[in-house]
Write a structure and sequence with these properties.
about 400 residues; alpha/beta; Aspartate Aminotransferase, domain 1; Aspartate Aminotransferase, domain 2; 2 domains; seven-stranded mixed β-sheet; three-stranded antiparallel β-sheet; 15 helices; about 45% helix; binds pyridoxal-5'-phosphate; PyrdxlP-dep_Trfase; transaminase activity
């Protein structure tokens, strides 16, 4: 018999695993489940990226061990992308890290830059995997509420000074999973000043950085003057290019933070498949790039519009998402986020993610993934309408 380590057993339970199990049980029982619970892009990767990958996979030069820290061409392409899109300048060798998905960087960061007992600030509600990083790094975390009345931005003034003084890093994620909220340049300017005042590192998770609606490209934290002095930003190919299964991302920003991420990765990984990195260069530099991204954004916006209109019609009023591919929906009186999610699955065959899985302040909401065609989204609302829960 082999026991799991204390570290492993200290890790938080993966809440999506429970959801997937419930959904699969329903499907096995023959229910036509409309699954709005998860965040997995449903459309294929743009063809120009697939074609270039095929070419690189066939090239024997990509079949060997490669450089630990990523191909110089990829780091340069990442730096150029940030310069072109956000006017931010990064040294490709010192200020860019290549990652096998941004989750890896988010999880290894406390391990690489914090000591046991240090304090990490996390948004509530927030992406559950931040908790895995805190547990692996044996750090304490404190949560900062994201409230509807502040457009789901943290109220920096309301963070107690002693908490701010203790904190070493603060994770933020806009466009936001799960609320669909976006940040403003004013907020980021205030955040840089706050970070300097309290010596807190800012970790911006820009997973949905390309997914802004109503013609508004999301603001990058790295556009803010002084951002590089206080933090980094993670950028993933998963959502921007429908490449969630490919596992490729990068981080840019403060050279001390990037250096620590690179160093811990030297110990954990050999390299990312060079063909994948070469394809990533083409994803970022091909003239078809912006049209491909635009098509992806338009599809989510169309779905958002269809879902929001249908939900409003039955009196179920969402916080209209300004980005991402989620809608953050209030739970009707008399239910918790979990009992409401269970009801929708049992009585309407609609799976949604209960908000409490994202933190205490997620209670009272469910998250809808707009990862299905508009007609099915409207059908989901029609099924929910039959439960007569809304006025
Ligand atoms: N950060 C947020 C907020 C996410 O929602 C996700 C994926 O759902 C990730 C990070 C992970 O992205 P990646 O596929 O790059 O690991």
């Amino acid at each position: 018999e082999f026991q799991q380590s204390q570290l492993l057993t200290s890790l938080p339970k993966q809440f999506f695993a429970t959801l997937v199990k419930k959904v699969n049980q329903k499907i096995a029982a023959g229910v036509d489940v409309i699954n709005l619970g998860q965040g997995n892009p449903d459309k294929p990767t743009p063809e120009y990226i697939v074609k270039s990958t095929q070419k690189w996979v066939a090239d024997p030069r990509t079949h060997k061990y490669s450089l630990f820290r990523g191909l110089p061409a990829f780091k340069q392409a990442a730096a150029n992308f940030y310069h072109e899109k956000y006017g931010a300048v990064f040294d490709p060798e010192k200020e860019v890290a290549i990652l096998g998905g941004s989750k890896i960087g988010l999880v290894e960061l406390p391990w690489a830059l914090m000591n046991p007992g240090d304090t990490l600030l996390l948004p509530d509600p927030g992406y559950p995997d931040y908790l895995s990083g805190a547990a692996l790094g044996k750090v304490k975390f404190e949560t900062v509420p994201l409230l509807a009345e502040n457009n789901f931005l943290p109220d920096l003034e309301a963070i107690p000074a002693d908490v701010a003084k203790r904190a070493k890093f603060f994770y933020l994620n806009y466009p936001n999973n799960p609320t669909g909220a976006v940040a403003t340049p004013e907020f980021y300017t205030a955040l840089v000043a706050w970070a300097k005042q309290y010596h807190v590192g800012i970790i911006s998770d820009f997973a949905y950085g390309a997914l802004g609606f109503d013609g508004q490209a999301p603001v990058s934290f790295m556009e803010t003057p002084g951002a590089k002095e206080v933090g980094i930003e993670f950028y993933t190919f998963s959502k921007t290019f429908n490449m969630a299964g490919w596992r490729i991302a990068f981080a840019v920003g403060n050279p001390d933070i990037i250096g620590a991420l690179n160093l811990i990765q030297d110990h954990l990984f050999v390299s990312l498949f060079p063909a994948l990195q070469e394809a990533a260069v083409e994803a970022l530099t091909d003239p078809q790039r912006d049209a491909a991204i635009e098509q992806i954004v338009e599809r989510y916006e169309e779905r958002r519009n269809a879902f929001v209109a249908a939900a409003n019609k039955i009196g179920w009023h969402p916080f209209v998402p300004k980005g991402t591919f989620y809608a953050w929906m209030p739970v009707p009186a008399g239910y918790t986020s979990e009992s409401f999610a269970d009801l929708l699955l049992d009585k309407a065959g609609v799976a949604v993610a209960p908000g409490n899985g994202f933190g205490t302040h997620g209670e009272g909401y469910v998250r809808i993934g707009l990862l299905i065609e508009p007609d099915r989204l409207v059908e989901a609302v029609d099924r929910i309408a039959k439960l007569n829960l809304f006025k």
